[in-house]
Amino acid sequence: MSTNIIYCYSGTGNCLDMAKNIARILGDTDIVMMRSYPAVTETRGAKRVGFVFPCFGGGAPTDVLSYARFIHIEPDTYTFAVSQSASYAGTGLAELNKIHPLNYWKAVTHQCSCIWLFPHTVMMPPMTPKQAQKRSEKLAAEIGEEIMAMVKTGKEPPRNALNAAENKGWPMIAKKKAEGFRVSDKCIGCGQCEKLCPRGNIRLENGKPVFGTNCIQCLGCLQFCPTGAISLGSITDKREHYHNPNVKAADLMEKIIHVD
Ligand SMILES: Cc1cc2nc3c(=O)[nH]c(=O)nc-3n(C[C@H](O)[C@H](O)[C@H](O)COP(=O)(O)O)c2cc1C
Predict the structure, then answer these.
(1) Which residue's alpha carbon is at the smallest distance from atom 17 of ligand 1?
(2) Which of 75, 131, 184, 185 is such that its CA lies 20 to 30 A from the CA of 221?
(3) Domain of 182?
(4) pLDDT tens digits for 140-153?
(5) Ligand 1 contact via 50 beta carbon (within 6 Å)
(6) 221 alpha carbon – ligand 1 mean position (Å)
(7) Structural domain tally of the chain?
(8) Can you give the pTM of this predicted structure?
(9) Same domain, 56 and 37
């Protein structure tokens, strides 16, 4: 058992990059991926247990909260969570706090990965992708130091009623939206999207991906596609694709990443 455990959900790598940067400050950390059911759910013996996840549709990705319920954390363990979003953290931290009371929490903004809605360069506060990445790394170092010192936030995460309503309807929107996935003749049939999909929603038929509607909208398939062959509405063909510059699709397929 490592001294620290970070449960991480990430669609396009921003949260995995944040988790790794925090882990580098803490040392001896297992980053347990939550894209599918986590490989470790027993945390007894760990000193610090935390979560790093994005905001999807006003709250945490639904699988984060579902899987969190199966994770056992001893009452005297220090707990923390970091939520990344393009502009607002939504209800994710507050909902997680109900499952695992959080000693420390932080909301951080990074680039928008929901490119059917906005170009990836749109974030609050406005800044270039390079600046956003630099800021995220600086914040991760500060957050890491605070978690190392086991700082307590001292108040509960906010819960905005509008975000709560948005998040309630999100699974339906994600399902409906998934009907729009298309693949162009740029597809080389590499099968990365099939392997990367956390919901098993993509299968290769005659060497080309076919999409179902069991989609959480992480958009990893589209954003990491090596030939840009996947689209979700014509707008996504026109917009520059984005994934975190330090994260590869293969990193997101790992079950546990250990950082010394
Ligand atoms: C489908 C989808 C929905 C999103 N919804 C929100 C949202 O409601 N509010 C927000 O501020 N950002 C939203 N975002 C932006 C992400 O939270 C942000 O880009 C985050 O850094 C992505 O982290 P990741 O790269 O680890 O997946 C959304 C992104 C996606 C893909």
Answers:
(1) 85
(2) 131
(3) 171-238
(4) 999 999 999 999 99
(5) no
(6) 15
(7) 2
(8) 0.98
(9) yes
